[in-house]
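Input sequence (281 aa), recorded before submission:
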Amino acid sequence: MTHNLVIQSLAPLSDAHHKPLLALSRGTRIVQTDDHALRIENANPAQRLDIDAYCGTHALDFGFIEAGRALGDFGLAVMDMDSTLITIECIDEIADFCGLKTQVAEITEASMRGEIRDFNESLTRRVALLAGLDAQALERVYEERLQLSPGAETMLAGVKAAGLKTLLVSGGFTFFTERLKARLGLDYAHANTLEIVDGKLTGKVLGEIVNADVKARMLRDTCASLGLEPSRAIAMGDGSNDLKMMAEAGLSVAFHAKPVVRDAATVAFDHVGLDGLLRLF
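Predicted structure, token format:
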């Protein structure tokens, strides 16, 4: 099996990178695909560590992609929400409205780094701190603080044009995933439901918590419903809660991710936006 090495940059790529990258990758030819990306044909994936070191020094992103692979070969694009499709962690911003952002964010960070092994416990602890908060805070977070990650809309337009279905699966909350599903024209969305009584958060989540196992199951089940093997799914995420669904997919993208996720993914985007997915093919 032959591979191409795709190099991407936020800034226009300098020709000065061509010679060292060709040598490091042991490839045969460089094709500059646009101002921000190039493809090295017949690159050797065993050179990953050397390429990683070079790209880290020069603020470049890279990925080894099977030669001849096309975006349209996949059938489903699966994405995490918080810090992947959007720039914020919604629960941290909700907590800000009751003066608890620091405490909640500390738990969020530890969980996403994989330091808290039980995501259910992590989420339950954080949501409990929100008890009594006016549910209007959710609307304010959506309207005032939620922003799409760079390249999100371009990426979604590209995967839809290639015929892929889209699934947003999140350990966050349906209040946000359902709005994003409608706004962005996503095919499927799955997340946790916050209990609200008399206009106040109760500090509880209703039903099954969307943890790493559930995310992986949602990817498999959605693929099955579409008549696809999981190998025809692309999974994008940033935290340890995404690792199992990323392991199921044929292509995984770590987006501005924690080191444990970056190390496990097929491709890591540390600099470019989500639209970097389109330049891989």
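Checked by second reader. The chain has a mean pLDDT of 96.
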